[in-house]
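Journal club prep, notes for RB
We'll compare a predicted complex against what the paper describes. Inputs for the alpha-D-glucopyranose case:
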Amino acid sequence: MARPLNILFISPEAHPFAKTGGLGDVSSALPHALKQLGHDVRVMLPKYRSVKQSKRSIKPMGLTVAVPVGPETKSGELHEGRLNRRVPIYFIGQDDYFDREGFYGDAEGEFSDNAERFIFFDRAVLEACKALNFQPDIIHCNDWQTGLVPCYLKTTFASDPFFENTRSVFSIHNLGYQGNFDERYLPLAHLPWNLFTPEGIEFYGSLSFMKAGLVYADRLTTVSKTYSKEILTPENGFHMDGVLRHHQSKLSGILNGADYGEWDPQTDSNIKTRYGPKSLKGKQECKKSLARKLSFKLPEQTPLICMVTRLSPQKGIDLILESFSKLMKLEAALVILGTGDAFYETFLKDQDHRYRSRFRYVSGFDEKLAHQIIAGSDILLMPSLYEPCGLTQMYALRYGTVPVVRRVGGLADTVKAFQSGKNRGTGFLLKPKETDEWVPLLQKALTLYSKKKVWRSLMLNGMKQDFSWDKVAKQYVRLYRRALKKNDKAVSEPGTDRYLPLQNLPDYNKN
Ligand code: ADP
Ligand code: GLC
């Protein structure tokens, strides 16, 4: 049997300590699934204020790492907790950077020191491995906030024996967020200027954390097969498509899983009544209880439509806004739970006042209410412009809440179009870029809703889908093992190893 791997999983989010979206869910569930397979997996996260607020047990370890950030040395205090009871999670504490409301920004906008905060975190992660004497085979990095780690491994730490056998995997959860900053931040990272080229970490004149991850990681993954193809095109590549095509040989798409430990109506303690495919009665109770909570006075047969979402253009919110008056004419009620762009929030608040009998907007981030809404609704909307994977529709499927989505990214890979004659399929799909068909598609779903038997089989088809993480974790392990092979083909492709070993670089301090 192959030996268990030492895996360090680093991320800017992990539920229940820090979450703004699906990355938080993935960073909790995937390490747990890897642990179940017998690997020594550990997670690292910044010690945000929310970590304290999570009321989980966290202990200081009495270990401090010294991290050079420009001319200063900042200390990182290590704390330890547990994820899903089994997985060690280390928090790197530096209150100047992380003890504040919000992870990346607040009501005023993005934090102005985000480059510095994540330069610190990325370098601290590597120093922490040494302090803990944990020699990872794989460092699995997630999204731009962790993008400098693969770069450090190939430059600053390239000749460090501690990391001699360490390989990096960089996962793209959303190419739309790249962490591009002014070049003046480069010296803060103690990275040499000759990395600041189009082959390196320069991106249209900026220092790009995302690009650092793409260029220097040994393997790249993204969170669905379809998205792994979409990002190679100018249309969906956010100007990184050229870089990605260049590094295509090390890129693969692995569809996320759904954490049924957290999201299963048969065991969910957040919802009013538990239910499952064998007994759907509880769903009706959940719907009644949700309607009461939202002060909706709805006849029982009125379909309830929901969205649980970040309010950002990615999620197709503009389509909701444009079609709003038409949506309000449908024989249905709508609830939206979400937070994000102020423009969308204001619009939705106004509509909430205007259409009290059939629309509710709940502003904010509320984990428990998210479960209650998904359980208590009949239909979930996700008309995203692009969607790397999307977890909400997978959760909705499990709860018998039928998804109406756009056929892009992971939505295309997880929702199958319902064919009424054959009673096959799990939801309704809008073509990419299509807008005119949106309201008719919803109308079609609502018409089927009134045919109780057909709707029931549609719900059951969805509830029987299995997106368990254990299968997904096995795919990651295969990928990790390939990356660890001495002659890993993907990394030896021409053009993927254009960095210079550190000894050939001028010392930045002398520049
Ligand atoms: P993304 O990561 O792009 O936001 P996903 O569908 O992958 O989209 O994951 C979204 C996750 O965030 C789900 O767990 C969803 O329930 C949760 N979520 C989104 N908005 C809210 C909110 N306002 N309150 C509570 N949970 C939310
Ligand atoms: C990102 C994507 C979403 C994906 C999630 C987890 O936030 O927008 O589609 O499901 O990451 O991978």
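Talking point for the session: The chain is about 35% helix and 20% strand.
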